Amino acid sequence: MVEKGAALVPSAKKKGTLSTAVDVPLGHNDAAYVRSHFDAVEARVVEAPRAKEIVVAVAVTDSGRPLARIGGMQKHEIKR
């Protein structure tokens, strides 16, 4: 279930031809600076986009990185 979403939605843009791989950025949905949730997933649509088409990719996870060892704001420090 996706709830609230107070943080900015990360985005990336890339031009390419058929089957170009794109990286879909990930982040925490309520706080943009929770580093344990900084990540990306690669997406590729075979034989797309064709002429006059665009590909829109959305990725959703249920948690941050397992055993994240990076500094910065932690999930439990988010003030709602």
Unreliable stretches: none
Biggest β-sheet, characterized? Answer: 2 strands, antiparallel
Radius of gyration computed on alpha carbons? 15 Å
What is the overall shape? Answer: elongated
Across the major sheet, the strand order is 1-2
Mean pLDDT score: 80
Q: Fraction of residues in helices?
A: under 10%
Separation of termini?
Answer: 18 Å
Derived structural class = mainly beta
Tell me the fraction of residues in β-strands, as a range.
5-15%
Q: SSE string, helix = H, strand = E?
A: EE
What's the number of extended β-strand segments?
Answer: 2
Helix segment count? 0
Structural summary, described in words:
- With 80 residues, this protein is mainly β.
- Strands 1-2 form a two-stranded antiparallel sheet.
- The mean pLDDT is 80.
- It is elongated and about 45 Å long.
- The chain contains no helices and two strands.
Notable characteristics:
80 residues, mainly beta, two-stranded antiparallel ribbon, elongated
Short description:
With 80 residues, this protein is mostly beta strands. It has strands spanning 22-26, 39-43.
